[in-house]
Amino acid sequence: MWRKIWTLSLRTRGVQAEHPRLFTTTPGKPEKALPPRPKILETEIDESFLRGSGPGGQKINKTSSAVQIKHLPTGIVVKSQETRSRESNRKLARNLLAEKLDQIEKGEGSRMAIKGARATKKKASAGKKARRKYRKLEEEKGVKGRVEGVGSGGDGMSSAVSGDTGASYTGGGGGEVGPATGAG
């Protein structure tokens, strides 16, 4: 019984139960891989664990889960207290330090610069697509909204719209404005 109801409900939606509709997507161009992060030697860093501060309650204030890493050759200091876990903060701090070192070494060829350029390009492309969409809608609206002869002057509509009817009003009658005083 359920099978019949299922096939009926599928048929009412325009889909046959025997041949389900397949949806396919076209694969996009694979993005070029980012360059690897530079390796940080253990001898080049000084790592310390600090007590966290800010929101998070008593737990974050009494445990030493915040990580501070100093890169000895450059003097760059990075601190991370994103999570309550010491290990995850340690990973985050090391990744942040690696990105900063990469940016100093490579400049425009660094991972951060490449990611930023990709994001800017993607945003510009999305904006261009949106403008194209609305331009197309405006063109379609303009074609559908036009009425033959309006504004051409051939049927007198343009002169009526502008206020020129060709007749002049002199106000005739010559009497006073107000109630008629016939007997009074």
From TrEMBL:
Domain Prokaryotic-type class I peptide chain release factors: 39-138
Molecular function, one GO term: translation release factor activity
Skewed-composition ranges (Basic residues): 118-135
Alphabetical keyword list: Mitochondrion, Transit peptide
Low complexity: bias regions: 157-168
Alphabetical GO biological process terms: mitochondrial translation
Pfam families: RF-1
Predominant location: mitochondrion
SUPFAM superfamilies: Release factor (SSF75620)
Keyword check for Transit peptide: yes
Gly residues compositional bias, start-end: 169-184
PANTHER family xref list: MITOCHONDRIAL TRANSLATION RELEASE FACTOR IN RESCUE, PROBABLE PEPTIDE CHAIN RELEASE FACTOR C12ORF65
Protein name: Prokaryotic-type class I peptide chain release factors domain-containing protein
The organism of origin for this protein: Meristemomyces frigidus
